[in-house]
User: Fold this.
Amino acid sequence: MTGQDRNHPQPGRGVRQPVADLFVDQAEAGLALIGSRCGSCAAVTFPRQPTCPRCAGSEMRDERLATRGTLWSWTVQAFAPKSPPFRGEFTPYGVGYIQLEDQVIVEARLTESDPDRLHIGSVMELVALPVDDDTFTYAFAPVTR
Amino acid sequence: MTDVAIVGLGLHPFGRTPGVSGRRQGLYAARAALADAGADWSDMQFGFGGSRDAGNADSLVAELGLTGVPFTNVYNGCATGGTSLALAVDCIRAGRADVGLVVGFDAHPPGAFDPDPTAYGLGPWYGETGLMLTTQFFALKIQRYMHAYDIRPETLATVAAKAFANGAANPNAWRRTPLTPKEILASTMVSHPLTKYMFCTPGEGGAALVLCRADLAHHYTSRPVLLRAAELRSRRYGSFEVFSPWLSVEGGDSVSSDAASAAFAVAGIGPEDIGIAELQDTDAGAEIMHMAEVGLCAHGDQEKLIHDGATSIGGSLPVNTDGGCIANGEPIGASGLRQVYEVALQLRGDGGSRQIPTRPKTGFTHVYGAPGISVCTVLTV
Assistant:
């Protein structure tokens, strides 16, 4: 069973709503993050933004981000963040940056929080992660082979 | 270009001072700096200062004296003190004033900072999903760096142990109990690979400086320290900064590198000439990375330098001789001025039991803060 199968998102059919406007339209083709690509200099941002942080151009187009990438860095959040703003029950969780092909490096929650199982360079894939009973966010999970 | 001198140094002890507000700690530091310069508040032709959580610096005129002096509040995160200094230097160089005061103070509640994502242009989701923590950034940045340059956890612990050893020799420091690298490594893991004793903590404190035109310095002191440069920069595209939901694949220079390069260019001396450095050590990893980012060594050379003791008092490049943020805590408004205070003290030879034996003639300071700002200074005697 792949991570994708195991964690495949409930958001389309469940009650949880996206925590923010971070995802492509669910009806299209599965869970994916949406960023912006600059029409002038090709810089990619996440989340979307209306102007380019590199060239200040305003020709930003929606860009579907790759759903697989490699772990660029990681840590484990061992203490509960102050709440608010943090929502949901706290248990230690992984946080990392995942390089998505040559598009962009995205910061994300990780489904794995065991330091012995987190390695820079590991292949990771996008999954949905419940925030609370009503909302979900995105996370990356190690791809098990 | 007009030279600027530091002629008065004032500091309120860092840490926790129950019953004394952060603002009063700033007042204490201001009065101490004026006394050190042998100057009166009524002599001051400008004031620049700030705090994040402890009130308005310009309100200090109520106690210092209502002289009508132009006093500007600065609110620039971790770069607040450095920004005040940069503004003061420009004010003197522009011929607007001959002498003035810079002051910074703060008092933060215990625990990690909890900034509002929307104040940084981020969506509320960033905080709601548990990503709005400076501690995570420090860990993510050093984790990548350790991977890239083969730096070991023991090196992080050695840096923190140096901070506590230096703090033990500094009567104004907060953490004054030496800890061994082994104890530091064994303390609670806060954000892998950084343990509890590798982090600084938000705290309280105040620091102030009197600055003047260098040709007038002898009116105030026989031992002026020249502030050769104080340069502020914000981040450019490609840098890896705190509170970043994304990074560019191609990367780029850090804002600390940019501010340091600018400061060295203005000062006309290079990093190879520096005899003491105060670097932003919000965590032990930050000190290691900042050593290279500001140009004091090549990336990857830190392992050898640190284990050889080069950055200890008595080494070839002493770093954070007062214990840095790790031993002093980080009262944001005061922290950058504490660094300059310490370097000036060392250049004057007033370092007491932590004085660098060879008494350096040149110094450097560096602060870094959210969302990607840095101030670097160069000082000489």
Q: What stands out?
A: DSSP finds two helices and nine strands in chain A. The interface with chain B takes residues 19-20, 22, 35, 43-47, 53-54, 72-79, 81-82, 84-87, 90, 93, 95-97, 99, 102-107, 109, 115, 120, 131, 137 of chain A (CB under 8 Å). Residues 3-142 of chain A form one domain.
